[in-house]
Design goal:
Elements lengths: L4 E2 L2 E6 L9 E6 L4 E9 L6 H15 L9 E7 L2 E7 L4 E2 H8 L4 H20 L12 E4 L2 E4 L19 H4 L4 H5 L6 H17 L9 H10 L5 H4 L5 H10 L11 H16 L4 H6 L10 H11 L19 H21 L4 H12 L4 H18 L6 H25 L7 H15 L2 H15 L6 H17 L5 H18 L3 H15 L6 H12 L9
Antiparallel strand pairs: 1-2, 2-3, 3-4, 4-6, 5-6, 7-8, 8-9
Length: about 550
């Protein structure tokens, strides 16, 4: 980066999985004291006036986009021959980094990721925007939720873009029509890229094979990949079928739009959570008699355990006596009926607790929510006075706490508005605790119990407050802790200022003023912080 400032932004350090190849920087808006991710583009002579006008119009449209799975764009600007776009700064790991670390993801994690991504694409498509670069390094996990970063409108035609040629691994995830015409982007190419990304996450391998751009391009155009279920046996056949439909070579053979994909993903979740098996899938249309592709026949044989049966419907099996056929059918009917009876037989209270326990021990958001919806709530409805009723209530409270805390963390990271008093008070108390003032945080948590304790709406946040109260009381607090802590923070800020780290020092002073402006007990210390911010005092101590 040739400069340390871009307009109102102070540039700090490079971002990305591979910073040396990135043109995205961490920056701080000097006036607003807000950290952002800024993407910088260079153009010869800074671009024409027409190109600059189009780029300015683009960032105005980007600023209006609002979706939880899209990184917020704050706008852009020009600086000499450079142009830039500023996005919200997300702390987390990209899908590319996760796959590099783990190899592949579980199908449950892929399903959790697919639904918000499909929703984001649907939102963009309704705004007549094609994302155009759905790849693992463009998917950031903010907490447990995936977020698409680097949203553009004129990605291919604008002179303000990254001119790096695509790598073979990137081409392996792009639609076949883009191999012959890179400008043929459409909602259908976004859906193909979504399917390719899900395929990669499920199997750990891209849907197109090859080590060079030429071989990958030919594979994308001509070859269908093996189905995910043939590579990962725990993959549900419904998810397998959807991914393969998204990867169809002809755009018209893919789902008609992102809304249809969302409905299909909901059906995958419904069938998977209802513990439906292959037998139900067969009865719902996945029949070996309806399969035409040889690879799909092989999958059907493996999944249904019918190695001895020829799946071609134009061939009549030979050598089987006619009087044996009814017996085979009757036996199969009994087996299927027994399987359905086993799957649909209602669980007793002990079994429901065991199933819920197995999911809760996974400690993932999706597993905990599944435990609540599939077992804990039904257990209380069916056995309200049962031996495990109190345990079920405690676990529901625990899941609600976990979900509420996660939702609040996401809102705070993305600067989204807080919707109720429980969120506001808990966020405020947590801010004191993170700043190091356990005494004030303890008072705030206790006030939550008094103000909100009787309202069921705020029960998750009251329970979160009780948990923090217990932790702080165990660790112990001191009445003079706030003064000592603020004094320590002032000293830390002075040292940062003296060493030239002005932004970090001002961030501490600003936090002190914001948190303690109405606290008379520490008013002299707050005045010091205000004085530092105004520049009317010498941080070295000789005031």
């Amino acid at each position: 980066m040739p400069r340390s400032r871009l307009g109102p932004l102070a540039i700090e350090s490079k971002l990305g999985d591979h910073p040396s190849q990135s043109c995205v920087w961490r920056a701080v808006h000097v006036q607003l004291k807000k950290a952002v991710a800024v993407k910088v583009f260079s153009a010869p002579f800074g671009g024409t006036p027409e190109a600059r006008a189009i780029f300015a119009s683009e960032w105005q449209r980007l600023k209006k986009l609002q979706h939880p799975a899209l990184a917020k764009c704050f706008g852009g600007g020009f600086e000499e021959t450079d142009a830039y776009l500023a996005y919200e700064l997300l702390e987390g790991e990209t899908l590319a980094a996760q796959l590099e670390r783990r190899g592949r993801l579980s199908w449950e994690s892929v399903l959790d990721m697919a639904e918000p991504l499909a929703s984001a694409l649907e939102y963009l498509h309704t705004k007549d925007i094609v994302y155009g670069r759905l790849e693992p390094d463009k998917i950031m996990f903010a907490g447990l939720s995936p977020v698409l970063i680097d949203i553009r409108i004129e990605r291919n035609s604008s002179p303000f873009r990254t001119n790096r040629p695509p790598k073979a691994a990137e081409l392996a995830l792009r639609a076949p029509e883009l191999a012959t015409d890179p400008n043929a982007v459409s909602p259908a190419t976004d859906l193909y890229a979504l399917g390719a990304t899900l395929y990669l996450a499920l199997t750990g391998r891209p849907p197109a094979a090859g080590d060079t751009i030429e071989t990958v391009t030919q594979s994308v155009i001509d070859q269908m990949p093996p189905s995910p279920a043939s590579l990962v046996m725990e993959c549900p056949v419904w998810l397998d079928k959807l991914v393969m439909q998204l990867l169809q070579k002809q755009p018209g053979s893919r789902p008609p739009n992102a809304g249809a994909v969302i409905l299909a993903l909901g059906e995958v979740r419904r069938r998977s959570m209802s513990r439906s098996g292959v037998a139900e899938h067969a009865s719902s249309g996945f029949s070996p008699l309806a399969v035409t592709d040889q690879r799909d026949r092989d999958v059907a044989r493996e999944l249904l355990g019918r190695e001895a049966i020829d799946l071609d419907d134009d061939k009549v099996p030979d050598g089987t006596p006619w009087h044996d056929r009814p017996l085979v059918l009757i036996a199969g009917l009994f087996i299927v009926a027994g399987l359905f009876a086993y799957l649909l037989w209602p669980l007793n209270e002990d079994q429901m607790r065991q199933k819920a326990d197995d999911l809760l021990t996974q400690q993932s958001r999706s597993a905990m929510n599944q435990a609540k919806q599939a077992y804990l709530v039904p257990m209380l409805e069916k056995y309200p006075e049962g031996v495990h009723a109190n345990w079920a209530k405690e676990q529901i409270d625990r899941v609600d706490m976990y979900q509420a805390e996660h939702a609040l963390e996401v809102k705070l990271k993305r600067n989204l508005p807080l919707q109720n008093e429980g969120e506001r008070l808990y966020a405020e108390a947590s801010q004191y605790e993170r700043f190091g003032d356990a005494a004030t945080a303890l008072d705030q948590y206790r006030s939550m119990q008094t103000l909100l304790g009787d309202d069921p709406q705020y029960r998750p946040f009251v329970n979160l407050a009780r948990r923090r109260i217990a932790r702080i009381e165990i660790e112990g607090v001191n009445a003079d802790e706030a003064s000592r802590m603020i004094d320590s923070k002032l000293s830390e800020a002075d040292e940062l200022f003296a060493s030239g780290k002005v932004v970090a020092a001002r961030k501490i002073w600003y936090s002190i003023v914001e948190l303690y402006d109405n606290n008379d007990n520490v008013a002299p210390l707050v005045e010091k912080a205000q004085s530092r911010l105004s520049g009317n005092a010498n941080p070295s101590g000789t005031e």
